[in-house]
Design a protein that fits this description.
Distance between the termini: 30 Å
Largest sheet: 6 strands, mixed
Number of strands: 10
Low-confidence stretches: 1-8, 224-236
Number of domains: 1
Helix content: 25-40%
Number of helices: 8
Mean pLDDT: 86
Strand content: 15-25%
Strand order of the largest sheet: 7-6-3-4-5-8
Structural class: alpha/beta
Length: 241
């Protein structure tokens, strides 16, 4: 799995992973900054079938990943620091990564990794990605709010039930269609979808791989059983942990 270079500062399109990798599920994690808060977890199986739940501790998350045996895990949390920044404990610049600047060019708002509450999420995300890597599991940084903007799906701020219904219209089935579901799980669904599209070579990779990248589904190459009308990117922000 790789990317095709779109030029300096431009999103790059991903290349498809192996057929074997694409046959295995993708996992999406809407990570909370603290184990005491809800983390949404989604396993995306064949088609767009979802199985979601709410988790808390890192041990619960890692156990769920082991059980799912995914090809990829897409995490809604910063997984890298801006180039030149060695710690979140020292105030001051740099505050933005190249992938953050790419979000700005797409008119998608976000909270910098150095913003107060985001520091907890960033630390937890980086640690979780390292632990997944030690397990031999590939992890990518995803952003469900940005995915929703690019795919023309309403954000949860417009109503969780409206978001859930839009996901069902898009073609998702399983948990998202058949039971009450939290907004954390809804965001995890979009994370898992981002991971699956990345494996299929239908994603945009933002940023510099030597610093850290963020992945979004490519709206021009998306797959869904029932399409949602496309929309221009709306100004949005990653939820605070």
């Amino acid at each position: 799995m790789g990317t095709r270079d779109g030029g300096p500062g431009m999103p790059r399109a991903s290349r498809p992973a192996s057929a074997n990798a694409r046959r295995r599920p993708a996992v999406g994690i809407d990570l909370a900054g603290s184990p005491g808060r809800r983390t949404g977890f989604c396993t995306l199986g064949p088609g767009l079938r979802t199985e979601t739940r709410v988790l808390g501790t890192d041990a619960e998350i890692l156990s769920a990943v082991r059980d799912a045996a995914p090809s990829i895990v897409a995490i809604d949390a910063p997984l890298s620091l801006p180039r030149g920044r060695v710690s979140l404990d020292v105030p001051g610049p740099p505050h933005l990564r190249e992938c953050d600047r790419a979000l700005q060019r797409l008119r998608i708002r976000f909270f910098p990794v150095t913003l107060g509450p985001m520091r907890l999420l960033t630390r937890r995300g980086i640690d979780l990605a390292a632990r997944l890597s030690a397990m031999g599991v590939a992890a990518i940084e995803a952003y469900p709010g940005g995915a929703q903007d690019l795919l023309g799906i309403p954000r949860k701020g417009q109503g969780e039930e409206r978001l859930r219904r839009a996901l069902v219209r898009f073609g998702f089935s399983g948990s998202v269609a058949h039971r009450p579901i939290t907004h954390d799980e809804l965001d995890a669904v979009l994370c898992a979808y981002t991971g699956r599209e990345h494996l299929a070579g239908r994603s945009l990779v933002l940023g510099d791989p030597t610093e850290g990248t963020l992945v979004l589904p490519d709206p021009g190459r998306r797959t869904a059983r029932r399409a949602v009308a496309p929309a221009l990117p709306r100004r949005s922000a990653r939820a605070l942990p």
